[in-house]
Design a protein that fits this description.
Elements lengths: L3 H9 L15 H11 L1 H13 L2 H9 L2 E19 L4 E23 L1 H68 L5 H36 L8 E2 L13 H11 L1 H20 L6 E21 L2 E21 L7 H68 L4 H36 L4 H8 L2 E2 L4 H11 L1
Antiparallel strand pairs: 1-2, 2-4, 3-6, 4-5
Helix pairs in contact: 2-5, 3-5, 4-5, 5-6, 5-8, 5-10, 5-12, 7-9, 8-9, 9-10
């Protein structure tokens, strides 16, 4: 870029050897790796994906035989007496027994409509979970890049304001000296003082904004990062490939992860209708049972005719094979109501799909046009910096000979640093639009961050730049 040396000189006011900076800068890719390990949202998406993966074994398990076993042991002791008119006396008895029962049953589903539907739904549920997980990873790339460049933009603004404040301070000092020798009026001093006071207030606000931006980045990474790499002056501005708005829209409509998830939602809602209809369909199960019951004990009786003892030991075995057919006849209208509910929900999912389709197309077009417009804007703002520098020099020269006022000098100075800040911001906007275009097309990958990272370079923080300017002064 033809004016990059001017921009660098204006911001730093002196040359800085990057290798001599006290703190090594953190790259964009390093920030992403930290976020990948620390960000709760990506961990939540991974946990939900793992949970959804269980849909297939659950659906398959319903098809397999269900085996259950039961058993019980009962100990009882019964005693009492009874009066008999026939024997003209009372008979007492004491009965103790031990009962053991066990059974094993096997139930094999022969036909259950909900199991057929669930097996079909399991694959769609897993596919959706995978899609949502990939979408979350792309969203993490966007969030990391956005907050990364938000920090750089806040640093640019603070650096610009610092440089502007220091320049105004020099103007104020010169104005006071010139007023003391009678070359200018007191109003010029007052104008310079007002501009300096405003720059101090702006600097306080810029520091607060930078601290907030760094906290937003820390929220994702879990660590505080004091220094970041920034785009170098030779950062390339590349048009999208393919260079066709229609091609990017077509890719988005076929590959956008959010749109793919919505399509799966619509299919799952359609399957839900079939699932709810299960309440109208019969079911058929094969049931095999085997079991045994054992009862043993004795009864002791004492009466007018003497005593008696009776022991018993009974064992019963029960084996059965049956086909159980269940036909639902009437459920109070609940089944029909649930089917209608599923129909309405499917209708809602279709409308949602239509909405997401339109949003995806809009996002693809907007990002594509954003990339093209930011390329032109970066070039225009680069030229604006050079023009603002020339205008400031002319205004300062005019002020020296009395044809311009101090207000015009201060305004030109402010316009120059604003142009520098806007120039850097436009480059960040270009990068974000390029990433969002790939996100809309469903092709955004970590390799895109690696490619951007190759063009990022170490640079001083606002604090280091301010220190450098003071040492240079």
């Amino acid at each position: 870029m033809k004016n990059t040396n001017i921009i660098s000189t204006l911001l730093l006011s002196t040359s800085v050897l990057l290798f001599s900076l006290p703190v090594n800068a953190t790259s964009l890719l390093e920030i992403y790796q930290q976020a990948l390990q620390s960000d709760p949202q990506i961990h939540e998406a991974e946990a939900r994906r793992l949970a959804a993966m269980e849909a297939r074994p659950q659906a398959r398990g319903a098809y397999l035989p269900q085996i259950s076993a039961t058993g019980d042991l009962t100990e009882s002791d019964v005693s009492g007496s009874r009066f008999s008119f026939l024997n003209a006396g009372t008979t007492t008895f004491d009965q103790s027994s031990s009962d053991t029962n066990w059974s094993v049953s096997l139930r094999q589903s022969v036909f259950r409509w909900e199991q057929i539907v669930n097996l079909k739904r399991a694959d769609k549920t897993i596919a959706k979970a995978e899609t949502v997980r990939e979408s979350a990873q792309q969203d993490l790339i966007i969030r990391v890049a956005q907050r990364y460049f938000d920090v750089l933009a806040a640093e640019d603004r603070l650096t610009s304001i610092n440089a502007n404040r220091e320049a105004i301070a020099r103007q104020l000092e010169q104005a006071k000296q010139r007023f003391e020798v009678g070359l200018i009026a007191i109003t010029d001093v007052q104008e310079s003082q007002a501009a300096y006071d405003q720059s101090v207030a702006d600097e306080i606000g810029a520091k607060r904004s930078l601290a907030t931006a760094r906290e937003f980045l820390r929220e994702i990474t879990g660590e505080y990062v004091s220094k970041l790499d920034a785009p170098g002056e030779d950062f390339p501005l590349q048009t999208p490939e393919p260079n066709s708005e229609t091609s990017w829209v077509d890719m988005s409509l076929s590959q956008n992860l959010g749109l793919l998830a919505s399509r799966l939602d619509e299919k799952l809602a359609r399957d839900e209708i079939s699932f709810r209809k299960n309440g109208h369909y019969p079911s058929l199960d094969l049931v095999v049972r085997t079991g045994e019951s054992t009862s043993e004990g004795d009864v002791i009786s004492t009466g007018p005719l003497g005593s008696s003892s009776n022991a018993f030991d009974d064992t019963t075995t029960n084996d059965s094979i049956s086909l159980q057919l269940t036909v639902p006849l009437f459920a109070g209208g609940g089944t029909s109501s649930r089917v209608r509910e599923a129909v309405y929900l499917h209708r809602a999912s279709r409308e949602q799909l239509q909405r997401v389709t339109r949003e995806t197309e809009r996002q693809a077009r907007d990002a594509y046009l954003g990339v093209l417009s930011e390329i032109s804007r970066v070039n225009a703002l680069e030229q604006a910096v050079a023009s603002s520098q020339t205008a400031l020099q002319a205004t300062q020269a005019g002020y020296e000979v009395g044809t311009r006022t101090i207000v015009e000098v201060l305004n030109s100075q402010f316009a120059l640093y604003a142009a520098i800040t806007n120039f850097y911001q436009s480059r960040y906007d270009y990068i974000m639009n390029a990433l969002r275009l790939k996100q809309a097309a469903g092709t955004l990958q970590v390799q895109d961050l690696e490619q951007i990272d190759e063009w990022l370079k170490d640079r001083p923080t606002p604090e280091e730049a301010a220190t450098t300017r003071k040492e240079g002064a």
